[in-house]
Write a structure and sequence with these properties.
It contains 15 helices and twelve strands. The chain folds into two domains: 20-282, 3-Layer(aba) Sandwich (Rossmann fold); 289-389, Arc Repressor Mutant, subunit A. It has 401 residues and is α/β, with parallel strands linked by helices. It has helices at residues 25-39, 45-58, 81-89, 103-110, 136-144, 183-186, 208-228, 230-234, 247-262, 266-282, 288-300, 308-317, 333-341, 362-372, 384-389, and strands at residues 10-13, 16-19, 69-74, 95-98, 118-121, 151-158, 161-168, 172-178, 189-193, 305-307, 348-349, 358-361. The chain starts with 9 loop residues before the first strand and ends in a 12-residue tail after the last helix.
């Protein structure tokens, strides 16, 4: 790059000057970070960095094989989730604000010939709440649209004839809602846990009619610079930080690739944020089935076999276990059998000293324990006691499907 002020942002190649693609992106990302910070109270700096990079990725998802969702979630209302979507809307390409929309509407929007939209889905908890069965098509679209190859297949009536139709589902999606979202979407998302502002947290009041004009040049510059980088981003293979692999790498690769293209402090920010978010995700509660496998392993101890009745009693007696209240009822033999059956573990008649009750054998559970649970630390380790009693250590997360 030239140090000549007249040629800043240009390089001399093959006897001629040419513009450097994406030059100035780092400064632009800094400006977007400052703009977001004015209106949104983030739980961490890493959350803000991720939001900025995700916004940039929405302008160049054609360069990537996967697009991460970004999910602003909170335990309580009035935590800044909707505000995060509102300011995002002003900076992303072809935004579509979605609240209580039909699957057909979303599919048509995503397949619009004018270009891929950015879906901003507020109140997502109403989609995956008690009536989730009514929204399976939306869930399927959000899952499938994570990858470029994702499509929505439909049968449509043309005249008197039904024909099949394939609608692309690949697009950038931002979500906001209370509570949590299904694991199938969560593992494809950057999940930002928003909090209500504390006494010392200050943000500016946001008024779209006032601030939209401020955001427009940022959006236009982002569109231009990301457009210049499409070819380079398509060929990018960013080095992922240790511990970010498989589906986590799918989520973070586009953001890290953009950070590398921007340069300055953004490559480090992106990788630090990736490690922090992945580590935080590993601390989430495992599925109920995995919790059961781990707790059964705990109550088995050194036994080769145990009767079902004793297993149930010991499971319910475990500290902070869910087994004493599953929908208002304790875990019983039938449900235990059904849940372990998902892992191909079946009860058998076992021989005790004077009785032959139904129960489970270690040899039948061993394969499921080995495949789905982290290994127990050896008894000689200083952490062996914790490993033997904790169903899921903090540094462990189930593998990707």
């Amino acid at each position: 790059m030239s140090s000549d002020p007249e040629n800043v942002g240009r390089e001399f190649v093959n006897g001629q000057w040419r513009d450097i693609p994406g030059f100035g992106l780092a400064d632009l990302l800094d400006k977007i970070e400052t703009w977001y910070r004015r209106f949104v109270s983030y739980p961490s700096d890493n959350a803000r960095f991720a939001h900025v990079l995700w916004t940039a990725h929405a302008h160049c998802i054609d360069a990537f094989e996967a697009t991460p969702r970004i999910a602003f979630l909170s335990a309580e209302p009035a935590s800044g989730k909707t505000r995060a979507l509102e300011v995002t809307e002003l900076l992303v390409p072809r935004p579509v604000a979605a609240v209580s929309v039909t699957p057909a509407y979303l599919f048509r929007k995503v397949g619009d010939e004018a270009g891929r939209p950015t879906i901003l889905y507020d109140e997502i908890d109403t989609v995956f709440g008690p009536k989730a069965k009514d929204n399976e098509e939306i869930r399927a679209m959000l899952n499938a649209g994570h990858r470029r190859t994702g499509i929505a297949g439909r049968c449509v009536l043309k005249g008197n004839k039904q024909v099949t139709e394939e609608i692309p589902a690949f697009c950038a999606v931002a979500l906001a809602g209370l509570g949590n979202i299904p694991d199938t979407i969560l593992t494809r998302s950057i999940s930002i846990r928003m909090k209500r502002r504390g006494p010392n947290d200050r943000v500016e009041p946001f008024r779209r009619r006032v601030h939209e004009a401020e955001a427009e040049p940022l959006r236009e510059d982002l569109e231009r610079l990301c457009g210049e980088l499409l070819d380079a981003l398509q060929d990018a293979w960013p080095e992922m930080p240790e511990g970010v692999a498989d589906r986590d790498a799918d989520v973070w690769e586009p953001l890290i690739a953009i950070a590398d293209a921007a340069g300055s402090h953004w490559p480090e920010r992106a990788r630090v944020a990736a490690v922090a978010f992945v580590a935080d995700a590993k601390e989430k509660s495992p599925s109920l089935g995995l919790r059961l496998l781990a707790d059964v392993r705990t109550v088995f101890g050194d036994h080769d076999q145990l009767p079902t009745k004793l297993i149930l009693e010991d499971l319910i007696a475990l500290d902070e276990s869910p087994w004493g209240d599953l929908g208002g009822k304790p875990l019983d033999a039938r449900r235990l059998s059904r849940m372990l059956g998902d892992y191909e573990v079946r009860s058998k008649t076992i021989r005790m000293e004077t009785t032959t009750p139904k129960g489970y054998r270690r040899i039948d559970l061993h394969d499921a324990w080995e495949r789905y649970l982290p290994p127990l630390v050896s008894q000689g380790s200083a952490t062996s006691e914790t490993a033997a009693t904790s169903p899921c250590p903090a540094d462990w997360m189930p593998g990707d499907d």
